[in-house]
Amino acid sequence: MAELEALQESKQESPEVGPTDLLMAIPAPLRSNLLTPAVQKILQAMKLLSSPCQVVLALPGEHPQDEPAGLALSGDEPASQPSVRYVNYPLQATVPGIIPWLPNAATYREVARLATTLQARACTLLGTDTGFIRDSLTPEKLTLLVDPAIGGSFDLVMPLYASQAFDDLVNKSILYPLTRSLYGHRVQNPLGTEVQISSKMFPVIAANVVRDSSQQQGRLPWLATLAASRNLKICQAQLGARRPSSADGIELSDALAQLTGPLFLDMEDNAAFWQRIRGSHDAPIFGTASTSTEATDTVDVRHMVEAFLLGERNLRDFWALILPPVTLLELKKLSRLSPDEFHMPDTLWARIVYDFALAHRLRNIHRTHLFGALTPLYLGWVASYAVEINQSGIAAAQQRIEQLARTYESEKPYLLSRWRWPDRFHP
Amino acid sequence: MWEQVHQALLESLHRAVFKVATLLPGVLALIVALVVSIFIGWLLAALLRRILLAVHFDARVQQSGLANISDWSSAKTPTFLATRIVFWLTVIAGLFVGIAAFDASLSSGLSAYVVAYISRIVAAVVLLTIGAIIARFLSRSVLINGVNMNLEHARLLSLGAKWLVLVFTVAMVLDHLGIARSIVDLGFGILFGGIVLALALAVGLGSRDLVSRSLERDRHKTSTEEDVVRHF
Questions:
Q1: Closest CA to A389 of A219, A195, A166, A237
Q2: Does residue B99 sit in the same domain as residue B157?
Q3: Which residues on chain B are in Cβ contact (under 8 Å) with A303?
Q4: Contact assessment for residue A110 and residue A23, using Cβ atoms and an 8 Å cutoff
Q5: B79 & B169 share domain
Q6: CB B117, CB B109: distance < 8 Å
Q7: Which of A291, A371, B89, B226 measures 20 to 30 Å from B107, CA to CA?
């Protein structure tokens, strides 16, 4: 019902840009020196598409149909060159202290409403990391992202980034294995920012964000979980390496709260759905991964182990509010290991994350404190992972993450028990 | 003479028994009022609990974003909080009725005095509760942030923050109750000033090496580990 209302609401105002197959939105203000190459890449990608389509490029701006300032395309384009028309949409101001590349829920809502208004068949969201658009996103990769949804085969195309062994560790340790275990889709970057959505997703996004906007304007739009919980078809596109621009000044505990908190909220919202899911299945991948055989860097884990030990000494009382006694005992045993042989079993880590998700729901402690208490445990996991992976190569790191994800799945009955009967574990 | 002593004792005993007999109905009325108010409070709380559960009050509060208020206190639901408030308000009302009945049997101005003072006590209890909640919240925040900043003495800092707030709260409560007001003012001023001075001296002199070591460790960590590891 809410989705229908959102759809009707968005159809009321329609900018006149003619028929549209594909809306391509860049949810970040681009400087003129970045805008021109980005548009050129889009034009080249359009030529590579399996079927020609009418494209509208949505850029942040105040006036709906202003030409983008600073755009200088060469005039000798052939006549067969697909044309791109422009439309502007209001961009939500970024909030200080938030990870800069994180997508904004309100912006996604605006884009979804615009795509509905234009009656587009699909919509591409190109993320806020302008460096990625400039350096890594080629027309070929853009085509991989656009083609599956414009052809109508898939409703959501998520990006698949090639990452180093020690990149994106919050995703590898929590976000990917948790979403995979909960929703049954092996989407490796569930919070990827370059995505393609089909028209089936527009009302879903608009309605979902409309509901959330009353209390949390900036709540992350988890498109992968939204699509999975509505049984929409998901696939992935290989987009190459992505090194997000620096997020200096953001504490790790704040980042954990910003990245993991919305997923925990999603768990509460979709509890009836994910409790029925068992196992997982692949989300088809388009494109080929660049294979690297070089050894990974070596990480000195002493500081991370020290952080874990400091947490174990001081935060035991907090952990006791969240974790069952057997887990506390395991952590106590871990604290006696030397940095070189530090090893946190996957089962233990998966159960810790599940317990924190439950504590988030039950509000055992203040939610800010919750992620603060998770931080030393997370650093303990990173230290354990680094001890195993140091100098082993990227393939070994990928296998390690796959093994962790399978453990999350095998431990899901533990989550179900705790979710349904939380008091049973706390005498 | 023994006759007079005997007479005096008898009169004294008679007066004491008379006094007790005069007080007894008031005391009984006070007890009855308390028992009845506890029963009514329990009844009202149970009724309210049923109603709130039926209308999914907890979920509604959570959706409205007001649930964050309960984060500051212990892990109780908004329904639990509401029923507790109703219960204790009823008991306090019963206490007032009991005191009024007690006072009527004494025919003195006690109830007016007690009622006036009870309102102060209630305000003091509220102050104390708020102070305790803030102290606990701050203490937890300092401890967790201290640990995440790799401060060895995070627990000490947390305890300091907690007791600072508690001492401040107790001083406010005593001042509000009018107990030894001048001593509290003076004592609190000396204590608070002393703590601040001691902290300044400790950080400025005693902890100089500790702070520099901590900063050095952070600088070293930044140059090695964070170049390779990217958390997000």
A1: A166
A2: no
A3: 150, 217, 221, 225
A4: no
A5: no
A6: no
A7: B89
Could you say which of A99, A318, A372 has the minimum Cβ distance to residue B232?
A99
- Residues A258, A259, A262, A264: what is their CA dihedral angle, to the nearest 10 degrees? -120
Residue B61 has pLDDT above 80, yes or no: no
Q: Are residues B66 and B154 in the same domain?
A: no
User: Alpha-carbon Rg of chain A, whole angstroms?
Assistant: 22
Tell me how far apart the terminal alpha carbons of chain B are, to the nearest angstrom.
100
What total of structural domains would you count in chain B?
A: 2
For chain A, what are the domain ranges? Answer: 2-286, 302-425
User: DSSP secondary-structure letter at A57?
Assistant: E
pLDDT tens track for A180-192: 999 988 988 888 8
* Cα–Cα distance measured from residue B186 to residue B195, given in angstroms and rounded to the nearest whole number: 14
- ipTM value: 0.76
CA distance B46 to A396: 59
Percent of chain B with pLDDT over 70: 78
Q: Answer for the pair A205, A223: CB distance below 8 angstroms, yes or no.
A: yes
Q: How confident is the model at residue A11 (pLDDT cuts 50, 70, 90)?
A: very low
How close B145 gets to chain A, by Cα (Å)?
A: 7
The C-alpha torsion from A341 through A345 and A350 to A353, rounded to 10°, is -30
Q: Is residue B65 part of a domain?
A: yes
CB A3, CB A203: distance < 8 Å: yes
**B147 and B101: one domain?**
no
Residue with tokens 């006590």, as numbered in its chain:
B121
Strands A55-60 and A156-162: unpaired
Answer positive or negative: Cα dihedral of B134, B140, B143, B144. Answer: negative
Q: Indicate yes or no: CB of A169 within 8 angstroms of CB of B231.
A: yes
Chain pair A-B, CB pairs under 8 angstroms? 93
pLDDT in tens, A102-138: 777 777 888 888 888 888 888 888 877 767 777 777 8
What residue numbers bound the domain in which B189 lies?
Answer: 109-207
| Record: fold of A2-286 | Spore Coat Polysaccharide Biosynthesis Protein SpsA; Chain A (3.90.550)
Query: Which of B79, B108, B137 is the endpoint of a domain?
Result: B108
Residue B57 lies in a domain: yes
Question: How many residues does the structure list for chain A?
Answer: 427
